[in-house]
Structures are given as C-alpha cells and as structure tokens.
C-alpha cells in the first residue's frame, strides 16, 4: 500500500497560497494549537515509561531493562508504579513536574497486522478497520475540514511530502524543515510560476506565498548555522522542533511531523545506547518546542506523541525488541488539566505475564481514535456529530486531558 506521493512544482502551489493566508491571519496567542509527532518504526514504550513496580519486567528483560529508581542509571520516578527513562531528566521530566506532561499507557490501535506501513496507514486514516478505507481522507484533514470557518486556522505538515493523515479536500501546506536546501521549487521555478500568474487575480497570493516560503528557509538556515555553537539544538529534531515552534506560534495552529529510526530489533540498549540517544534527542526537541512557543501560546497548545505500535515485552536474542501491539502515548501542553498533568492516565492493568496480549505485548486498552477524539472535543468544543466526522464510528473516551 503506497503511503506517499511526490509533490510536483505545480502541486506545491497550495503551499504558497496557504503560507500567504497564514501570514495574513496569524493565530492569536490563545488560539488552540495541536501538533502530532509520529514516531515511525514503533518505539519501545517499555523503556520510555518503565513499569518499575513489575518484577516480570525485569525478568523479561535481563539486559535491556531500565533499572529501578535509586539504582545506578535507574528510571526517574513518576509515581509508585512508573518511572521515566533517565535520558528524559533534563527535558521531559521538568514538564512532568510542572504538570505539562502526561502519559497514556496501553494505548494504540486495534489493527493486528504488526506491519509498520499498514499500521501507520491505518492510524493516519483514522477510519474504521472493518470498513473500506479511503486513502484520500486522513483524520487530520477531516479535523481541518471540521474547523473550517475559524479564520485563524492554518494547517501545516512539516514533511517533504504530504502525509496520509493530512490528505483530503482541505488545503494543507507542507514543507520539510530538515532539508532546507532541497526544496521542490527552486528560485527559477518560483519565478516561472509567478510569471504564469502575473496580471491575474491570483498573482498577489502567489508572490506573497513565495516570499513567506523564502523567509521560512532563511530562518531555518540561520538556526542551522547557530546549531554548531549551541549543543541543545545541535541535532536534527531539536533544531527542527524550535523552528516548528516559531512557525506554529506565529502562523500555524494544526501541525504534523514524523520522526524515524525507532525500529530497535538489535542492540537496543537500556539507560544508554541506540534507543537512549534517540529518546534524548526527541526529549530535547520537545522541551525546545515548549520553550520556543512562549508561555501564553504554549498554555493553549497540545503535543501528542504517538507511534504505530509498541514492541514485544520480552527482549529478543539480539538484545532488542520486535514488533508489538500496545504502546504509550505522550501528551504535552501548558494547559493540561489537573486530572492529567503530571499523571499516568487512561485505562490500565497490572503489568504481568498473565496480562500480556497474545503472550507477547501490551494490550490496547486506550484506542487512539477514542483518546484523540476526547482530546479534540475538549480542545475545540466539537459536538458528537463533528467527532464522528473526524473519527467515524469511534467511541470517544474523555480522559480530561485539557
């Protein structure tokens, strides 16, 4: 199943128009902003959100378990049952302590394919699993359609190609911030396209759009130059996250970004190693995003970090983990509710061998459409009928996240 289509120069015109509209009507500081961070490759949630209360966890992971709090390189205590990967100490843990972060374990989709691409597609579409699925209707595009008429809404995908979840009738811009010098429309093509529309009613929007695009690229290049002297933003996601925050603060209020490299079948590591390095980069990026947004916009922002599925509870023979089922979602934001901020939320069960799904994975108790549907209902005041437009046939679960 093909997930992506290359955007031609002509297909990039909606980007120019959307950027022009965004500059003309920047969102207010109290406008709700939502960013979906998709971890492609299925990250190991059992190393991020550590079930420190479970003896079975430590028996099932003799070489890759994160030690209990208080032990060398141990998990950072969140409550009596759960700990956080030590790589998060300087980034996500402060957000947790300030009630700006929570976690939803046993989360995910009911899709059982265990295929990266099929499950990613299924989640991005947000459609019922037992019905015909249209590749032209992603759930974030349907959300954008539902929110049309709110003049400050400007969706944006921070990706080289429009992701499946943002495909549909609503016009959504996309641009990759990580590869600034490799844009689909260079200066010569920009001039040629602008000349095509010269003297027409669309000429001002086209010219304005290209001007904004050039400003985005200039700003990104400046931050790339700065990164060599600033350790906190020296790597990819941290750098991109800061730029995304600037754009979402000033121009966009519905965003998507994906981060790859989470398929850890071999030598996953524990408190240090491959996974720890990725979590460190991701955590720093998320903290940088929150800081760059500024206090008031951040208070009205929510970042949801999801992955297509979790990984096997037991480690494999290569000191890694294989494709699993249930995972843990991260929900970050300056306006999380007292019921969510600094808490582990959602339906939970004891972490034991007897409760594994198919004797290998976390079960899914908090289905993603239900969780996100409840979040959108609170963020945007959506009615049950509107939620059904975004997530058809979904049973919404209100976790009182905001």
Structure explained in plain terms:
- The chain has 402 residues and is of the alpha/beta class.
- Helices cover 35% and strands 12% of the residues.
- The protein contains 13 helices and 11 strands.
- It has helices at residues 13-24, 45-48, 55-60, 92-97, 116-125, 139-146, 187-196, 203-227, 236-250, 274-293, 295-299, 368-380, 384-390, and strands at 33-39, 49-50, 76-77, 83-84, 101-108, 155-157, 173-174, 254-259, 301-307, 327-332, 366-367.
- The protein has an 8-stranded mixed β-sheet with strand order 7-6-8-1-9-10-5-11.
- Helix 6 packs antiparallel against helix 13.
- The chain is globular, with a radius of gyration of 21 Å.
- It starts with 12 loop residues before the first helix and ends in a 12-residue tail after the last helix.
- Mean pLDDT is 86; it is low at 1-14, 20-24, 180-184 and 223-234.
């Amino acid at each position: 199943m093909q997930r992506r289509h290359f955007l031609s120069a002509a297909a990039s015109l909606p980007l120019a128009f959307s950027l022009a509209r965004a500059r003309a009507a920047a969102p207010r500081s109290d406008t709700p902003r939502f960013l979906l961070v998709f971890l492609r490759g299925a990250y190991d949630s059992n190393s991020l959100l550590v079930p420190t209360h479970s003896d079975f966890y430590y028996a099932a992971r003799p070489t890759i378990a994160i030690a209990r709090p208080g032990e060398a390189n141990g998990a950072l205590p969140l409550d009596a049952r759960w700990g956080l990967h030590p790589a998060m100490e300087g980034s996500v843990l402060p957000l947790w302590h300030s009630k700006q972060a929570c976690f939803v374990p046993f989360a995910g989709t009911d899709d059982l394919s265990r295929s990266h691409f099929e499950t990613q597609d299924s989640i991005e579409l947000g459609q019922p699993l037992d019905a015909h699925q249209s590749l032209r209707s992603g759930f974030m595009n349907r959300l954008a359609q539902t929110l049309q008429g709110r003049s400050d809404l400007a969706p944006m995908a921070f990706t080289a190609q429009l992701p499946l979840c943002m495909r549909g009738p609503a016009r959504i811009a996309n641009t990759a911030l990580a590869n600034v010098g490799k844009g689909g429309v260079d200066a010569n093509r920009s001039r040629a396209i602008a000349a095509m529309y010269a003297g027409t009613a669309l000429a001002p929007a086209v010219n304005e759009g290209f001007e904004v695009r050039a400003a985005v690229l200039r700003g990104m290049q400046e931050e790339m130059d700065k990164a060599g002297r600033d350790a906190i933003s020296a790597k990819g996601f941290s750098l991109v996250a800061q730029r995304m925050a600037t754009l979402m603060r000033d121009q966009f209020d519905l965003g998507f970004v994906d981060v790859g490299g989470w398929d850890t079948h071999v030598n996953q590591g524990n408190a240090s190693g491959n996974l720890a390095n990725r979590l460190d980069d991701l955590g720093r990026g998320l903290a940088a995003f929150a800081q760059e947004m500024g206090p008031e916009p951040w208070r009205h922002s929510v970042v949801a970090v999801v992955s297509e599925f979790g990984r096997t509870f037991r480690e494999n023979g290569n000191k890694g983990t294989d494709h699993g089922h249930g995972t843990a979602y991260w929900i970050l934001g300056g306006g999380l509710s007292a019921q969510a901020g600094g808490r582990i939320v959602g339906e939970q069960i004891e972490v034991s061998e007897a409760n594994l799904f198919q004797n290998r994975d976390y079960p899914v108790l908090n289905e993603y459409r239900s969780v996100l549907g409840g979040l959108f209902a609170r963020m945007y005041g959506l009615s049950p009928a509107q939620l059904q437009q975004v997530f058809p046939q979904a049973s919404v679960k209100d976790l009182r996240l905001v």
